[in-house]
Amino acid sequence: MTILDKIIERKMQELEVSKTKVSLQQLKDSEFFNRETISLKNTLKSKSGIIAEFKRQSPSKGIINNQFSSLEVVTAYEKFGASAVSILTDSDFFGGNFEDIISVRNHINIPILRKDFMINYYQFYEAKAIGADVVLLIAACLSPTQVSEFTDLAHQLNLEVLLEIHSEKELKHINNNIDFVGINNRNLKDFKVDLQNSLNLKNQLPKDILSIAESGIYNEEDFRFLKEKGFDGFLMGEYFMKSDNPRNKFEEFVTNVSK
How far apart are CA 218 and CA 72, in angstroms? Predict the structure, then answer.
């Protein structure tokens, strides 16, 4: 089994338990379910273009940084110009949880991307209930039909959709309703990184789609290079989180790339 296979298998087990503990109606009755969501389409253009990620660990790197709360980090991300924040909610493989989003929702005024492995309708109601504005769909673990159906559901809940692809065969997952296409430089099957992957796939995207470069942006030169190639946004987390102080690292990075 690949890492992705293991994650999806575990996610299916988690969902069976979650559905017995919290009903759809309970999710709909939660504090944030009826809040007006914030559009990443708007903030992506008006700020730095960076979707700054809060991530404690990953399957490939182990613990990255578990010294800070999500609130400490993402408020700094917003202060220094992030267009949005991405917060991992997978527990077993990435050390995240729902509280990482719930605890910050009332403290920031930029969109929150719930980053998880979305494979069931129930998770979209979860995302809405915890205060997310955007959800991630990963082509590698969904069919084109599922992507289309989940996109429709997300939009019914006023959530925007970031579709993540990492190979040419996944281009067929793109449909006219997708809000953003993210090109992951990290192969989810073996977690190897290839920055050139973004450029190869970007040239094959529909002309009017907003494109996000994901993973493998390890320095200011990578960022500038991808920006010059026309990417609209940049999902970055490890670069900031692996430092001793992610807040200061983000401020320094934005200052330098803005010169």
Answer: 22
- Give pTM, 2 decimals: 0.95
Q: What is the DSSP string of 194-214?
A: -THHHHHHHTTS-TTSEEEEE
Mean pLDDT of the chain: 94
Is residue 239 pLDDT above 80, yes or no? Answer: yes
Distance separating alpha carbons of residues 64 and 13, to the nearest angstrom: 26
**What's the CA angle centered on 240, arms 210 and 45, to 5 degrees?**
25
* Sign, CA torsion 88/137/16/111: positive
Count the alpha carbons within 13 Å of 2 in the hemisphere toward its beta carbon: 11
Cα separation of 167 and 184, whole Å? 9
Kindly state the tokens that stand for 227: 């920006």
Which helix (H) or strand (E) is 193 found in, with range? none
Taking only the tens place, the pLDDT of each residue in 172-231 is 999 999 999 999 887 666 667 777 777 889 999 998 999 999 988 888 998 998 999 999
